[in-house]
Amino acid sequence: METLLLGFNRIPVLNEEENERVFQELLGMRKLWLARTNWHPALEIAGEDSGIEDYVHYYTVGATLYMDARDKGWKFYHKLYQMYNRVLRNKLGWLYDKFIIELQKELGECEYEDGLGLPGFHIYEFDEAPDQRKHHRCLHYDGQWWYGRNHFRKKYKDIDFKNQLSYTFSIKVPHNGSAIALWDLPEEHKRKANDIKYMIYRDIIGRYENVEYVKEIKAGNTIEDPWKYKLFNDDCGDLEKYIPVIIPHIEGHSFYYYGMIIHQMILGDSFKKGDYRITFQGHGLKCDGKWRLFW
Fold first, then answer.
1. Strands of the sheet with 179-182, listed across from one edge
2. 251: helix, coil or strand?
């Protein structure tokens, strides 16, 4: 696994009242929620028989390079992002303004990229979970810029493709928590990661940051593009060295990183009807000295 992690943090963006305002605005936009197929590994293995779709309902609000442009082409993506950008700016322009102000305090000059979709929202709506199984995505590297590479190459001269920025800004978290798992985290970053995760402690850390979870991932070979990336050595020995760092999602806070690290969305477990996981999602590339933000 290749790791080139240059920076990361979890930052406060919204207070409780502002967070609730975003949540209510999104509920009012329900007709614009675009239903998606869940990315849980169980679906890839067992298809509809996994039962995941019965109680985990996944939507997006916004146009994505890595789903819409990739799967349906640039013409479709262009129409979709124009519609969503207009609505999101109209309904939640204040949120976009506030987010970029806080991000610039950390990273320097940023702007939303003209000609691409604005950062948007992942929305998971839950019914009662039938068991305590863990719900997560496959381990993966981010590289969403690939589906917009021609856009960037035509527009900019100095583009740092290797150090994409990714951010997950939590609006709603399920009652039992959700998180991001950082795998193969370099030793020099572990102290900072531990400081972040324990600053606002959540029980989800203990449920996923253990050898049993590593065994589950190893047994399922739960990694995107396993023909490209190898998660475990053939003789991997003690699995404790593979235990990921679990950083909980906190409502009103955004976790970001830039560089390359294998990571994983921890959706959570033991969902109750009425739980949501709603995150403001996006990426960025540093082009001609400025972070250009997109989804």
1. 135-136, 263-268, 179-182, 245-248
2. coil
**Two tokens at 144?**
């969403």
Bridging pattern class, strands 290-294 and 110-112:
parallel
3-state secondary structure of 128: coil
Q: Containing domain of residue 158, as a range?
A: 4-294
DSSP category for residue 7: E
Q: How many CB atoms lie within 10 A of CB 200?
A: 12
**Residue 278: what are its φ and ψ, rounded to 5°?**
-120, 125
The pLDDT of residue 133: 87
Is 25 within 8 Å of 92 (Cβ atoms)? yes
Task: List pLDDT tens digits, range 75-85.
Answer: 999 999 999 99
Amino acid at the residue 105: K
Enumerate the H helices of the chain as residue ranges: 16-28, 41-46, 70-72, 74-107, 149-155, 187-199, 204-208, 211-220
pTM here is 0.92
Q: How far apart are CA 32 and CA 84, in angstroms?
A: 9
Number of domains in the chain: 1
Interval 116-152: pLDDT, tens: 999 999 999 999 999 888 888 888 878 888 888 999 9
* Cβ–Cβ under 8 Å, residues 177 and 202: yes
Would you state the pLDDT for residue 45? 46
| CA gyration radius, the chain | 18
What confidence score (pLDDT) does residue 256 get? 97
Residue 220 Cα to chain centre, angstroms? 21
Half-sphere exposure of 105 (CA within 13 A, CB side): 11
The CATH number covering residue 102 comes to 2.60.120
